[in-house]
Every structure is written in structure tokens, then in C-alpha cells.
Predict the structure of MarR family transcriptional regulator.
Amino acid sequence: MTDEKAPDRDPEAVSKFVESFAAQLVEAGLQRMPARVFAALLSSDAGTLTSSELGERLKISPAAVSGAVRYLAQVHMVSREREPGSRRERYRVHADQWYEALTNREAVIKRWEHALREGVDSLGATTPAGRRLAETLAFFEFIDGEIVAMMERWRVHREKLFGSQ
């Protein structure tokens, strides 16, 4: 029995949630099809679906599923898994996927900090452009430190709410 057909689950309500949450993700900058695929995975009890299951739930083509999953995997929002003894892949969203996504952003911020430092050095810290880059660098250094501290607080909070996983 798929989770959409669970006795206490209204498939239409699930579909409405998927589309509504996907629309919020699109508004935040995610592409439409990856947003829909991500929301469908997030709303499945197992947190995992095959390409055909995603296509069926979202009424999209295998090519659309493939492109969406490729993007989501690149940004560490889903992972691919092989079914044992099969060539079929399952796509999984992890319970800690928000943590993973933020951790990935942290690596991007580090690269931006490096580039900004080079910019400040190249432009000169006392020039208007150099000061602007230095302020931007200071902002990202601040954010980087806050993310590290926030993620530690989240681990403690998550364990209180859900236990160790």
C-alpha cells in the first residue's frame, strides 16, 4: 500500500500539499519541476520513490523526473539509491536534508569568502569598491559563523524533539 492510499490519507489533499509547497519553493528560487519532485518525496512516508512513482504522482514524463532529480542531487537535496537486484533507482530525501543543504551552502559561502578576499586585495581595502567588498566579506564571515553555531543548536534541539537518529 502506498502512503497516498493510507486509510487516513486523502490523495487529493496530499497532491494539494505537494503543489502548494512546491509553489513556495519556486517562489524562493527553486525551479518548478525539482520543487514538485522534492515536495512529492518529502510527503512520502518512506521518503523514497522511483521514477515511475514520481511520474505517476506528479503526472510528468520520465525525462522531467530525470532532469529534476539530477538537479536535486547536484544541490544535495536528494540521493539516488539502487534497488537490490534491480537496475531501478529510488530517489530519497533524508530526514536531515535541510542540514545537508545548509552544509552545502556553507561550502559555497567559504568559496565566496575566498573570492571576496582576493577582490579586496586586488581593489585595495581603502577604495570605495574595496570597502564594499570588505563589508560583503565581513557579512559572509559573520553568516558562516552563525550557520555553524545554529547547526549545533539544531542538532541539540532535534535530539530533544525526535531522539537520536
